[in-house]
């Protein structure tokens, strides 16, 4: 065609273009890429065209890699030219603005920010992440026990509260963080904002572009939140009452005159990265346990026999190889970032006789990498044994150390590898271990005694993929464990109350969040109070009027609105646990209970 003729590059002798699916000139195969589970399509093409192939999308070359070896050969060994990031049409200054380290081009700003991020992470990891993940896990387990139907809410609260504590030494910005982070995910995901697919829409001026307007509002809010959080830590340091945090470490180590502006952005990005990603494998764990009850039993046997009834703590990790194998296998079985985060190549390159043009976007297709039968035999099956048995290619000894997540392909390659692995590792070990200790997760049964089906692979479409909501039972394994969970929750709560008392008086700015949540309120009104079909992360925004700090719960003293603890399965079925707002909602004649989110304004009022 004329387009291909005009754009052809003279290749050196013996070098050929990468194979790939045939496409419409300029447009490529956009029409073939599904909005949901696009990674399955990219993997299908890998099976047809090989572990490295290319597609053209609106004139731009995309290279897809489904082999860990090839990803290492290019992204790690040739990191000098493969460590850039592509421009995101809906966030066109992503390579230069310095706001989001993970999206920066290979610039000096990126190098400086990556160094700082590594240093702050390392300092906290040495101090076991200040025990924040365990504290939040203790809160999470009890909430799960009380109302498993709200599991996505509890999981997102756990991840965002933990990372808020790590970033700023307090859990209270967690809800706003979820709000702004989910917005950013939409802004940058290929299946989120439209300009990311139809690139020329990036040229529409802001007054005519709903995407640009939305992103500007989101960014302004994020900016206010980050500044308020840094101000909070400064104030607490002044009172000598600051709890450890990434930004606190920076502020106490910084040289005279060194600005906090950039550190604020780096820490903000770390919080963003931790707020939504880790929820994916926690939800996939629940899905895995529904489909593979035998692995839940084995995991419970390990925990029960090694720990003699106590709940797993981070210090127990050497003794619990199966738990570490489950963590790793959940991530392999259902990759949280299935299409990977793209790199960009800066110079023309040749690999095994194939030409890779400068400027191409390079995708390590994480889904494809985890389906490589040579590395992961019977790859579709969830099998933690592959990390524990010398008969499998992925086995590594000693089992007191391995398996672990360091160097795992699912965290990327080369100079751009993920810097959050210590947080991921600890969060997942504690939540998955805690849930195995506490609950039997299993499929529900209907009135006739038949199992209620649970989907196998219905995942949300954005860059970070999570299972769509599914029904399951989380049955506390004993009354004693239920009591222990209540005690763990109470002691986490008491700690938080003490923190609030110390922090009293810090004046946060008015964030105008009621207006920020208006679009969601409109959605709720339209949908009659329940939005069942949207991305889980939006649930946080559904009820911005609710100022209760924990949806479905109030303080223990107020028994009127406190749902009762589940005593037995039948009782729980007969008496669904409902929040007061839900009851009101049902009284108004709506059929479905609403899903409440922690009130954003309320979250800021508690200080
Ligand atoms: C299950 C959770 C997570 C997964 C699966 C994950 C995965 C990834 C992946 C695939 C990349 C891109 C690597 C590449 O370009 O080759 C990445 C980058 C990154 N991640 Fe994570 N991540 C997770 C959690 C976190 C957390 C909790 C943090 C908190 C600090 C974090 C911080 C980062 C940073 C800073 C980068 C960018 C590095 C750079 O561009 O130089 N991640 N992550």
TrEMBL record:
Name the keywords, alphabetized: Heme, Iron, Metal-binding, Oxidoreductase, Signal
What cofactors does this protein use?
heme
Q: Region Disordered: which residues?
A: 543-607
Query: What InterPro entries does the record tag this protein with?
Result: Cyt_P450, Cyt_P450_E_grp-I, Cyt_P450_sf, Cytochrome_P450_fung
Q: Where is the composition biased (Basic and acidic residues)?
A: 569-584
Cited SUPFAM superfamilies: Cytochrome P450 (SSF48264)
Please name the GO terms that the record assigns under molecular function. heme binding; iron ion binding; monooxygenase activity; oxidoreductase activity, acting on paired donors, with incorporation or reduction of molecular oxygen
- Its domain of life reads Eukaryota
Report residues binding heme: 418
UniProt keyword Chloroplast present = no
Q: Which family does it belong to?
A: Belongs to the cytochrome P450 family.
Q: What is this protein called?
A: Cytochrome P450
